[in-house]
Structures are given as C-alpha cells and as structure tokens.
C-alpha cells in the first residue's frame, strides 16, 4: 500500500501504512518510518460483529500543535487550581456585595475567611454560591456588630430571606461561630 512518502533510508516509495497499528513501514528495507500516529478525527461504523473505529491519522511531523481549549471563562491547563478559581470568584462577589452595603475592606477580608472555612469543610457543595457569599457577609456583620439585617442583604442580592436564613444558620452552626444577638 503506497502512500506517496519516501523512505529516509533507501529512498523507496513503497511504504506500507497500517492505521490499526498506527505505524508506517518501508517494505523495501523494513525501516519503521513512523509509529504512534496520532488520530485527529475518529468515526464509528457498525461492523457486523460490533462497532469499529475509523480514523484519519496525522503524523507526528505534521504542522500544527496542541490546541488550548477553554471552558467558559477559564482556560484548561492555565495552572489555576479549582479551589483558587473558586476563592478568586468568591472574593470578587463578596467585594461587590460589601461595596453595595458600604462595608470596608476589613469586612470583605473577614467574610472571605468565613467562605474559606466553609469551602474547606465542604459546606458550599449543593448550595447556591450567592447564598453562601451572602451568608458569609451576614455572619461578618453579626460578629462585627453592624446594623445590617438579613433582609438588607437578601434585598441587595435579590434572594429569598428565608433561604438566606437557612444557609446562614447551617454555616454558623457547622463552623461553630457564636453569633451575638441583634440588639436594637
């Protein structure tokens, strides 16, 4: 089966290409010209005894390289760990919420620390991130003694205050945080 490629050793054009094994061999001198050919496109076809894969093989010497594919806003292989990305997003959202409530950097840092504690203890799984951020900010407001109420935060975030309250109670209990009472 001639493929139009010349052998580097003897110059023969009688080259056998075996797609199943993924190699290319000179039938004149027996030299292996290429092995581990990379599949760029795979198709499946129904053979009488089951499915068979059919592909177009691309040599290792071909031009082009690996493509950096992305998911959403984050690049796969960018080096950022999943936890780092989660914390970076949380910092952005918590900062935005605290700015809307006119809270200083101290409150942002404290709320982010509560979020990190919740993340480490896997308390964020299965809960909406906006509820977790809001609950962390509310825990901060309560521990720092600000005048912000749960309904203030739920209004800013446009989430149900009952759901926010449930998330807040679960987080504060699981993190063993003693929340002072609201004094009017």
Automatic annotation (TrEMBL):
<dbReference type="Pfam" id="PF00382">
    <property type="entry name" value="TFIIB"/>
</dbReference>
<keyword id="KW-0805">Transcription regulation</keyword>
<comment type="similarity">
    <text>Belongs to the TFIIB family.</text>
</comment>
<keyword id="KW-0539">Nucleus</keyword>
<keyword id="KW-0862">Zinc</keyword>
<dbReference type="GO" id="GO:0070897">
    <property type="term" value="P:transcription preinitiation complex assembly"/>
</dbReference>
<dbReference type="GO" id="GO:0000995">
    <property type="term" value="F:RNA polymerase III general transcription initiation factor activity"/>
</dbReference>
<dbReference type="InterPro" id="IPR013137">
    <property type="entry name" value="Znf_TFIIB"/>
</dbReference>
<keyword id="KW-0479">Metal-binding</keyword>
<dbReference type="InterPro" id="IPR000812">
    <property type="entry name" value="TFIIB"/>
</dbReference>
<dbReference type="InterPro" id="IPR036915">
    <property type="entry name" value="Cyclin-like_sf"/>
</dbReference>
<dbReference type="GO" id="GO:0001006">
    <property type="term" value="F:RNA polymerase III type 3 promoter sequence-specific DNA binding"/>
</dbReference>
<keyword id="KW-0677">Repeat</keyword>
<dbReference type="Pfam" id="PF08271">
    <property type="entry name" value="Zn_Ribbon_TF"/>
</dbReference>
<dbReference type="GO" id="GO:0000126">
    <property type="term" value="C:transcription factor TFIIIB complex"/>
</dbReference>
<protein>
    <recommendedName>
        <fullName>TFIIB-type domain-containing protein</fullName>
    </recommendedName>
</protein>
<keyword id="KW-0863">Zinc-finger</keyword>
<keyword id="KW-0804">Transcription</keyword>
<dbReference type="GO" id="GO:0017025">
    <property type="term" value="F:TBP-class protein binding"/>
</dbReference>
<dbReference type="GO" id="GO:0097550">
    <property type="term" value="C:transcription preinitiation complex"/>
</dbReference>
<dbReference type="GO" id="GO:0005634">
    <property type="term" value="C:nucleus"/>
</dbReference>
<dbReference type="InterPro" id="IPR013150">
    <property type="entry name" value="TFIIB_cyclin"/>
</dbReference>
<feature type="domain" description="TFIIB-type">
    <location>
        <begin position="3"/>
        <end position="34"/>
    </location>
</feature>
<dbReference type="InterPro" id="IPR013763">
    <property type="entry name" value="Cyclin-like_dom"/>
</dbReference>
<dbReference type="GO" id="GO:0008270">
    <property type="term" value="F:zinc ion binding"/>
</dbReference>
């Amino acid at each position: 089966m001639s493929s139009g490629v010349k052998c580097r050793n003897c110059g023969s054009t009688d080259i056998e290409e075996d797609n199943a094994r993924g190699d290319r061999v000179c039938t004149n001198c027996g030299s292996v010209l290429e092995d581990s050919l990379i599949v760029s496109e795979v198709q499946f076809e129904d053979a009488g005894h089951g499915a068979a894969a059919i592909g177009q093989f691309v040599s290792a010497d071909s031009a082009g390289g690996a493509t950096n594919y992305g998911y959403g806003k984050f690049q796969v292989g960018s080096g950022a760990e999943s936890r780092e990305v989660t914390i970076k997003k949380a910092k952005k959202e918590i900062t935005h919420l605290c700015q809307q409530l006119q809270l200083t950097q101290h409150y942002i840092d404290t709320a982010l620390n509560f979020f990190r504690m919740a993340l480490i203890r896997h308390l964020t799984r299965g809960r909406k991130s906006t509820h977790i951020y809001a609950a962390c900010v509310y825990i901060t407001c309560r521990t720092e003694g600000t005048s912000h109420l749960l309904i203030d935060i739920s209004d800013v975030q446009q989430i149900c205050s009952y759901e926010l309250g449930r998330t807040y109670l679960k987080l504060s209990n699981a993190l063993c945080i003693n929340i002072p009472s609201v004094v009017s």
